[in-house]
Amino acid sequence: MIRTVLRMGDPRLLQRAQPVTRFDTQELRELLRDLRDTMAHLNGAGLAAPQIGVGLRVVIFGVRSNPRYPQAEEVPDTVLINPLIEPLSGEIAEDWEGCLSVPGLRGWVPRPARVRYAGCDEQGLRFERTVQGFHARVVQHECDHLDGILYPMRVRDFSRFGFIDALFPGEPLPLEE
Ligand code: NI
Fold first, then answer.
1. Ligand 1 (ion): which residues have CB within 5 A?
2. What is the pLDDT of residues 33-81, one digit of tens each?
3. In 18, 30, 80, 95, which residue has its Cα 20 to 30 A from 121's Cα atom?
4. Which residues pair with 95 in a beta bridge?
5. Taking the complete model, does pTM exceed 0.85, yes or no?
6. Which residues participate in catalysis according to the annotation?
7. How far is Cα 80 from Cα 60, in angstroms, rounded to an integer?
8. Can you name the CATH fold of 11-167?
9. HSE of 148 in the Cβ direction (CA atoms, 13 Å)?
């Protein structure tokens, strides 16, 4: 079911989400189905459970090749539950981000360039990946939602924060996270 995505200003987006303790439940399957339906409907790159008002440590993300965004890096379709993220060096990368909870805006966000992340899939099986580039950015963005952090809180240069159509006139709308 397509759910309403909460927008910045809703206090539920600022809460710390709780770990999932039981896997293979109807509740978790329905949550994942709703996250997928909602993300696909909005053409998003990722979505976190708190964005649809569910305070659990569950995120999904994934980007397939898209002729509208020839430069977008592919990211495998991923369900990540109870994640942990560890930066792998002091190197910081900066790039534009958007968010389905902050519609119409983009900001220039510094984040660790390479990270290792671990967590569980929807069956509760643990997995781990070492990533960089857009994959590293999107997983950090989504997991921030589990701690009540929205990307504008990480913007440092507010001359690079604004409305998409004003920042990038004439360009196709970018993917949002
Ligand atoms: Ni977001």
1. 99, 177
2. 999 999 999 999 999 999 999 999 999 999 987 766 677 789 999 999 9
3. 95
4. 109
5. yes
6. 142
7. 6
8. Peptide Deformylase (3.90.45)
9. 9
Residue 150 CB neighbour total at 10 angstroms: 21
CA 146 / ligand 1 centre spacing (Å): 10
Q: Distance from the CA of 150 to the center of ligand 1, in angstroms?
A: 7
pLDDT for 73: 87
Centre of ligand 1 to C-alpha 145, Å, is 7
* Mean pLDDT rounded to a whole number for the chain: 95
Question: What is the C-alpha separation between 29 and 86, in angstroms, rounded?
Answer: 28
Instruction: Give 7: exposed, middle or buried? Use CB within 10 Å, 0-12, 13-18, 19+.
Output: middle
* CA of residue 134 to ligand 1 center, whole Å: 14
Tokens 């792998």 label which residue?
88
Domain range summary for the chain, segments of one domain joined by +: 11-167
99 Cα: distance to centroid of ligand 1 (angstroms): 4
Which tens digit of pLDDT belongs to each residue from 111-132?
Answer: 999 999 999 999 999 999 999 9
In the sheet where 114-120 sits, what is the strand order? Answer: 46-48, 58-63, 75-87, 114-120, 126-132
Which of 12, 56, 63, 60 lies closest to 33 in space, CA to CA?
A: 60
